[in-house]
């Protein structure tokens, strides 16, 4: 055996797994296909970081994070209006609950922590296939190079070719996947703080549905970094294909939208990128362990979009903790069979990540509701317009105003009640 | 007003190490039969695919941001797509 454990992929899941196993005294190698750690990694990205404190105490003070999210904005965007709930709460920063991150900065730090704990990190190393013997996975192959280990951890991301080769994943239904297209827009620190009403290292996170995706399933996001803004759209692939839409045009539609554009005024494009996102929720998370093999992070389909929060990195970290603890047990027992590797799945299920995946199991179906992206934004704007647009005509009571807006939207009261109930159930 | 620029201008903001061999292969016959050209052109955020005058699909593999959207949506048999060799392809500076 060359190592106790081989981790494929130096993202959050891979680095957390490697760090904990190295700290427990095991020999660990992390192989990463990017020329440098973080080069291939891209997130929205808000990291709900309480889980990181379990691994790296005082995470937000030590790690290269951007801003501490204390302001969450949830909006319905229409062609000429934006209706939002603006939730600004200083308590979200004490203790810090969520941070904005840029992965090209964060991930190298995570890999350094793993290295300092004794792991070997090998960038520029793309794994071509897995090695197996007698039904147990035994290592990896890259070109003519082979590395062997007791356990291989697949942390190779949403496309995980290795999980497909291992027979753990087949082609996902399109509604289980979305593509995120994101720009990072540079702006002076003071401009960001003034424009978004932030003090010091406070940050804002916007989640917006409606006109940003031209009614397709998905939404727009905007996150403040220290000296830039991450902004973009996430669009479900079934709608992208079915509605004949262009992913880059939807990105531009949101970024240049008259309601959004003023937030970016004077900015300069620093980077344009994209990444696939798992949208299937719990239905996508299956077959995570085989003899000598576990799957973590995006490769395991661990993403959770509730409409209010979009989570992936915290679940990746939780899966890394569960994997490392189960592999630590397996290494002590010298047993790497199916039952030992299933210990990872059990630990994941018992963690907040597994429990949240179960709690929000109905969220993906709720978010498939096209009325969420097409009808509710205009309805809300029309009701509010009924109050604020004092056009000289005498005001009507809220009930007729609401009834008229509802009629204009084409939504019936029964449908509204049903969608509301489905929303409550999903959350 | 914010200038996003053309797709090639935007891509120039990231670093690319171009692999000498393409990591993307289109089966032109299958693509034509499945009429997959316009789909690939519009779903790719990086503008990797283009429709050629002869009806085939052009592939600019050097522009690929490696998201995998094309592979996820392509009809069976149309596309061979894997990651570029180790250390090659896009390198994000922000991520």
Strand content of chain A: 25-35%
Shape of chain B: globular
Provide the number of structural domains of chain A.
3
Reading off the top of the CATH hierarchy, the class of chain B is best stated as: Alpha Beta
Query: Quick one: biggest sheet of chain B?
Result: 2 strands, antiparallel
Number of helices of chain B: 4
| Structural class category of chain B | alpha+beta
Number of spatially distinct domains of chain B = 1
Regions with little confidence, pLDDT below 50 for 5+ residues of chain A: none
* Mean pLDDT over the residues of chain B: 96
Strand content range of chain B? 15-25%
Q: CATH superfamily name of the largest domain in chain A?
A: FAD/NAD(P)-binding domain
The name of the CATH architecture of chain B is 2-Layer Sandwich
CATH topology of the largest domain in chain A: FAD/NAD(P)-binding domain
Oligomer designation: heterodimer
Task: For the record, give the distance between the C-alpha atoms at the N and C termini of chain B, rounded to a whole number.
Answer: 24 Å
The largest chain-to-chain contact, stated as pair and per-chain residue counts, equals:
A-B, 62 and 40 residues
Structural class of chain A: alpha/beta
Rounded to the nearest angstrom, the radius of gyration of chain A is 23 Å
CATH T-level fold name of chain B: Alpha-Beta Plaits
Quantity of strands of chain B, as a count = 6
Description:
- The complex is a heterodimer of chains A (427) and B (95).
- In chain A, helix 1 packs parallel to helix 4, helix 9 runs antiparallel to helix 10 and helix 10 packs across helix 11.
- Chain A is globular.
- Chain A has 16 helices and 19 strands.
- Chain A is α/β, with parallel strands linked by helices and 427 residues long.
- Chain A folds into three domains: 206 residues, FAD/NAD(P)-binding domain; 104 residues, D-Amino Acid Oxidase, Chain A, domain 2, CATH 3.30.9.90; 58 residues, no CATH class.
- In chain A, strand 8 and strand 9 form a beta hairpin.
- In chain A, 36% of the residues lie in helices and 27% in strands.
- In chain A, strands 1, 2, 7, 8, 9, 10, 16 and 17 form an eight-stranded mixed sheet that branches. A seven-stranded mixed sheet of chain A has the order 5-4-12-13-14-11-15.
- The mean pLDDT of chain A is 95.
- By secondary structure, chain B is α+β, with helices and mostly antiparallel strands.
- Chain B has one domain: Alpha-Beta Plaits, CATH 3.30.70.20.
- Chain B is 25% helix and 19% strand.
- Chain B is built from four helices and six strands, in the order αββααββαββ.
- In chain B, the strands form three sheets. Chain B has a two-stranded antiparallel ribbon with strand order 1-6.
- Chain B is globular, with a radius of gyration of 14 Å.
- Chain B starts with 6 loop residues before the first helix and ends with a strand.
- Chains A and B meet through helix 4, strand 11, helix 7, helix 8 and strand 15 of A and helix 1, helix 3, helix 4 and strand 6 of B.
């Amino acid at each position: 055996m060359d190592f106790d454990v081989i981790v494929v992929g130096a993202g959050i899941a891979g680095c957390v797994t490697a760090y904990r196993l190295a700290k427990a005294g095991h020999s660990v190698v992390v192989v990463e296909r990017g020329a440098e750690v973080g080069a291939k990694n891209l997130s929205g990205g808000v990291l709900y970081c309480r889980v990181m404190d379990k691994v790296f105490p005082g995470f937000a003070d030590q790690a290269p994070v951007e801003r501490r999210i204390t302001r969450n904005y949830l909006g319905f965007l229409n062609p000429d209006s934006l209706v939002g709930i603006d939730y600004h709460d200083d308590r979200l920063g004490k203790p810090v609950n969520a941070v904005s991150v840029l992965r090209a900065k964060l991930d190298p730090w995570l890999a350094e922590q793993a290295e300092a704990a004794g792991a070997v990190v090998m960038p520029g190393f793309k794994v071509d296939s897995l090695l197996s013997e007698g039904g147990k996975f035994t290592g990896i192959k890259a070109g003519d190079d082979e590395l062997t280990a007791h356990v291989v951890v697949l942390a190779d991301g949403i496309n995980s070719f290795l999980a497909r080769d291992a027979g753990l994943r087949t082609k996902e239904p399109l509604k289980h996947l979305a593509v995120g297209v994101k720009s990072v827009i540079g702006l002076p620190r003071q401009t960001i703080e003034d424009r978004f009403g932030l003090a010091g290292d406070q940050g804002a996170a916007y989640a917006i549905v409606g006109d940003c995706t031209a009614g397709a399933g998905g939404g727009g996001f905007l996150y403040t970094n220290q000296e830039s803004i991450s902004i973009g759209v996430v669009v479900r692939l079934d709608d992208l294909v079915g509605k004949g839409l262009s992913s880059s045009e939807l990105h531009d539609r949101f970024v240049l939208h008259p309601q959004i554009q003023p937030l970016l005024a004077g900015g300069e494009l620093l980077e344009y990128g994209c990444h696939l996102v798992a949208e299937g929720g719990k239905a996508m998370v299956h077959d995570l362990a085989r003899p000598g093999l576990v799957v973590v992070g995006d490769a395991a389909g661990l993403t959770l979009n509730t409409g209010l929060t979009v989570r992936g990195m915290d679940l990746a970290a939780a899966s890394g903790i569960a994997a490392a603890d189960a592999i630590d047990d397996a290494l002590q027992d010298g047993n790497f069979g199916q039952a030992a590797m299933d210990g990872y799945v059990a630990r994941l299920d018992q963690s907040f990540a597994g429990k949240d995946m179960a709690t929000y199991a109905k969220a993906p179906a709720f978010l498939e509701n096209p009325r969420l992206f097409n009808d509710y934004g205009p309805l809300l704007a029309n009701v509010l317009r009924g109050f604020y647009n004092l056009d000289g005509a005498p005001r009507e009571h809220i009930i007729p105003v609401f009834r008229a807006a509802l009629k204009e939207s084409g939504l019936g009261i029964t449908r509204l009640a049903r969608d509301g109930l489905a929303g409550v159930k999903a959350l | 007003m914010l200038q996003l620029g053309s797709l090639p201008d935007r891509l120039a903001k990231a670093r690319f190490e171009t692999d000498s061999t393409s990591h993307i292969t289109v089966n032109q016959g299958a693509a034509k039969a499945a009429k997959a050209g316009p789909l690939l052109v519009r779903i790719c955020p990086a503008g990797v695919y283009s429709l050629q005058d002869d009806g085939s699909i052009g592939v600019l593999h050097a522009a690929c941001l490696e998201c995998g959207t094309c592979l996820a949506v392509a009809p069976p048999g149309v596309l061979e797509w894997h990651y570029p060799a180790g250390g090659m392809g896009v390198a994000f500076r922000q991520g």
